[in-house]
Design a protein that fits this description.
CATH class of the largest domain: Alpha Beta
Radius of gyration: 26 Å
Distance between the termini: 58 Å
CATH topology of the largest domain: Deoxyribonuclease I, Chain A
CATH superfamily of the largest domain: Endonuclease/exonuclease/phosphatase
Strand content: 35-45%
Shape: globular
Structural class: mainly beta
Number of domains: 4
């Protein structure tokens, strides 16, 4: 559940712009004319001066725009100087920063690298490779030893492979100021064998992105590190102080875990994945966002979701209002304190929420989808498989038996509840996720006179050859019953991270999803970008590197004769600046080489 479904966000439509290129900024939550959008240098801070605000300037000029609602603005002339910048959404005539996002200005050609996982096809199959290099390379050449053709200068060549085996792929691309060499040994795997993969997936409502508990983001990081899932879907992502999903990815990097991130503006859900994310969006029904993951060359659609929390009709049989209408407005105990057990009343309040429309919009969007689909989220509604005759006198259901419609609609459309697939007995394994006991926080109960325990966080799946083989609850075994913490009733559930500090009012849930990959005769590879921007160039003493993903890079500078004058390795964090001091290098022309993830980019560097 959540008491705040509205958030303020700001983002640019690209991470990197050319000097002078128009910058488009999208925002939400600018509720009056006192809001501003501003572009600032990355190191700038807001100051004050009487009688008006002292803005940090960019190239000596004030750059701002007045707003009165959510939408977008465009800075048509962009910025002229290469470097790192922030876009900020500010309130109170620009005195207060509400949220911000990073971007860079760079004229360097940034080129794409291979996806990090192999791709599989059957003998005689074809691979459609895509060069996603930015800033318009002037030339390129692909090499496909063992394929037909064995080389190509096309941007998106199609290559056939006749015989089983593992085949290399290389790409050399050249821009005005840099060249790139990519190499993936054994990247194309040709086989007539069935390939399967196990994905450990996790749903995690992070309770106002960890801000409700002291050290919340650290607790979230440590739980994920302990559980070690392949992908995590988050609910209640608010971006209160910048891109939260990038922050958690960077936190996990400090523990040696590498994840890709996905977030789409206008949602409060996000995803991190050990597998590359090749596409994202749109926001479906205001609640769900589809992401396409490249899992060993096969596309899987993963959809984090957070449904409407109002009209929470599961509280009516517990004797509480449900944030609904008429006599059920608000969240207080009913007066007199009597359970509402009339199923017609319960159903009417439940259907007045947006949940059924949100699930209906998702099902309509996915109706022609043939790839495996995972729907993972906080539904704010119990399961149609739980409120049965066998549970009728448990958890203050007070005799109510009801097939809750959101999960029922999914079931009727072929989606499988992973937890109930693994644990079909709703009494033996209730799988309760609400309410959880949060570390250092007061009671998380919203119905303190009742037993409000429910399973409202889910992992659903659909697709040929897809099945759940394991599942668990993540977090403390205890829940609140009549405002008192208890562990009764869940003795047979399997828990992970059960003794670790817990940052949320929800427990998380995991499932191991086995996907049997039926090899196809044609496969599309979108080569995943790991852009490393380098500026300024020319430089008088320092250069800045900004990668698009977390990556371990080897940086070397050599003179025209090929002799190294500087070499070092560095862990670069996504969209974060790393400064390198080359003031000790003599003036002249050098070659700067940045190598990461089997790609190397060579840039002509001028030291003044």
């Amino acid at each position: 559940m959540s008491g705040n479904i509205f958030s303020q966000t700001v983002s640019t439509n690209k991470h990197t712009y050319l000097a002078g290129e128009a910058i488009s900024v999208s925002f939400t939550g600018a509720t009056n004319l006192k809001y501003r959008i501003g572009l600032f240098t990355a190191t700038s801070t807001l100051g004050s001066a009487s009688p008006s605000l002292c803005w940090q300037s960019v190239e000596g000029a004030l750059i701002k725009s007045s707003l009165d609602n959510s939408g977008s603005v465009v800075f048509q002339n962009g910025l002229d100087t290469e470097g790192c910048y922030k876009v900020r959404l500010l309130s109170n005539d620009g005195y207060t920063v509400m949220t911000e996002a990073n971007f860079t200005i760079s004229n360097a050609v940034t080129l794409a690298s291979n996806a990090t996982n192999s791709t599989f096809i059957t003998p005689g199959g074809k691979v459609n490779s895509t060069d996603q290099s930015s800033n318009s390379p002037t030339s390129r050449i692909w090499s496909f030893p063992g394929g037909t053709p064995s080389s190509s200068i096309e941007m998106n060549p199609i290559v056939a492979y006749a015989s089983p085996g593992a085949y290399d792929v290389t790409l050399n691309a050249t821009g005005e100021s840099s060249t790139l060499h990519l190499n993936k040994p054994g990247f194309i795997k040709v086989s007539d064998q069935t390939v399967s993969v196990n994905l450990k997936v996790m749903q995690f409502n992070i309770w106002q992105e960890g801000t409700s508990v002291k050290n919340g983001i650290t607790y979230i990081r440590d739980v994920i590190n302990s559980v070690n899932p392949d992908l995590v879907c988050f609910s209640e992502v608010k971006n209160y102080s910048g891109d939260w999903t990038t922050k958690i990815v960077n936190e996990l990097t400090t523990l040696g875990k590498k994840y890709y991130r996905g977030y789409v503006n206008g949602s409060d859900v996000s995803i991190i994945s050990k597998y590359p994310i090749t596409s994202s969006g749109p926001v479906i029904g205001g609640a769900t966002v589809p992401y396409v993951l490249d899992v060993n060359g096969t596309s899987i659609v993963v959809c984090p979701s957070h449904l409407d929390y109002t009209y929470y009709a599961t509280y009516l049989p517990r004797g509480y209002a449900c944030g609904g209408s008429d006599k059920y407005v608000g969240w207080n105990a009913l007066s007199p304190f009597t359970p509402e057990t009339n199923v017609s009343e319960i159903e009417a309040q439940n259907l007045a929420s947006n949940r059924d429309e949100q699930i209906g919009a998702f099902i309509n969007y996915m109706q022609n989808e043939t790839r495996p689909v995972l729907l993972i989220g906080d539904f704010n509604e119990p399961s149609c498989l739980d409120w049965t005759v066998r549970q009728a006198n448990l958890y203050d259901h007070n005799g109510v038996v009801y097939e809750w419609p959101s999960t029922l609609l999914l079931k009727k459309n072929g989606f499988v509840d992973a937890y109930r697939q693994v644990y079909p007995d709703e009494v033996l394994n209730p799988g309760i996720t609400w309410p959880a006991i949060a570390t250092g926080a007061a009671s998380t109960s919203w119905a303190p006179l009742s037993d409000e325990r429910d399973r409202i966080d889910y992992i659903f799946y659909k697709g040929a050859g897809v099945t759940a083989t394991a599942a668990s609850i993540v977090g403390p075994p205890g829940s609140y019953v009549r405002n008192v913490a208890t562990t009764t009733g869940n003795e047979n559930d399997i828990f992970e991270a059960s003794t670790m500090p817990w940052p949320s009012d929800h427990k998380a849930v995991t499932a191991t999803i086995n996907v049997s990959l039926t090899l196809s005769s044609i496969n599309l590879i979108n080569y995943h970008k790991v852009d490393v921007r380098v500026f300024p160039n020319p430089t008088t003493g320092r250069i800045t590197l900004v990668p698009s993903e977390n990556t371990k890079a080897q940086i070397s500078i050599s003179n025209i004769s090929g002799a190294d004058v500087l070499s070092r390795s560095s862990d670069l964090l996504a969209n974060q600046t790393s400064l390198f001091d080359i003031s000790g290098v003599p003036t002249g022309i050098y070659l700067l080489k940045v190598t990461s993830q089997n790609q190397s980019q060579v840039i002509r560097l001028i030291k003044q």
